[in-house]
Design a protein that fits this description.
The protein has 157 residues and is mainly alpha-helical. It has a single domain (16-136), classed as Rtr1/RPAP2 domain (Serine Threonine Protein Phosphatase 5, Tetratricopeptide repeat). It contains 4 helices and 2 strands, in the order αααββα. It has helices at residues 2-46, 54-60, 66-78, 120-132; strands at 99-102, 107-110. The protein has a two-stranded antiparallel ribbon with strand order 1-2. α1 packs parallel to α3 (66-78).
């Protein structure tokens, strides 16, 4: 009887330690999530400015995900600045229409996203950057390989 009581007591203590460890891990994960989200929010806010340095821009992309980048584009559009963070142009003539019709190839294009940029080049450059940004949660990236971000080469015209 004594043996079974002590065994069950030891077993319950081990379970309690496992639960405590899980709680500690959970609290650490929540804290890491908060820290990562706060850092990403600061980056989003900094990208709403004009005159962003290329090196700074590229170095910050590792700490945001695609949703954050979409927020940057949307917020810049609301401020009437080109959605591409490396472009300082103001959006002056934003089309009110939602679709563009190409009569040469008989195709209708939804230009909702394109309207957030001052030019097709900025739209393409932004989409190129967005395609490189990771989609995984920020707080789970410690074991992921962060890509080396590259800018779309500008065409010489």
């Amino acid at each position: 009887m004594w043996y079974t009581t002590s065994t069950s007591l030891i077993s319950s203590m081990q379970k309690s330690n496992r639960n405590r460890l899980s709680e500690e891990q959970l609290l650490k994960a929540i804290q890491k999530k908060k820290e990562c989200n706060a850092k990403a929010q600061k980056i989003v806010e900094s990208f709403l400015e004009r005159n962003i340095a290329r090196d700074y821009f590229l170095s910050q992309l590792k700490d945001i995900n695609q949703c954050h980048y979409e927020d940057i584009v949307d917020e810049r559009h609301i401020l009437l600045i080109c959605g591409y963070p490396l472009c300082d142009n103001l959006l002056e003539k934003v089309p009110s229409k939602k679709y563009q019709i190409s009569t040469t190839i008989n195709k209708v294009y939804d230009i909702t996203d394109r309207k957030k940029f001052c030019s097709s080049q900025c739209f393409k450059a932004s989409e190129f950057i967005k395609s490189q940004i990771l989609v995984s949660p920020l707080w789970l990236r410690q074991n992921e390989q962060i890509p080396e971000f590259k800018l779309l080469e500008e065409k010489n015209t």
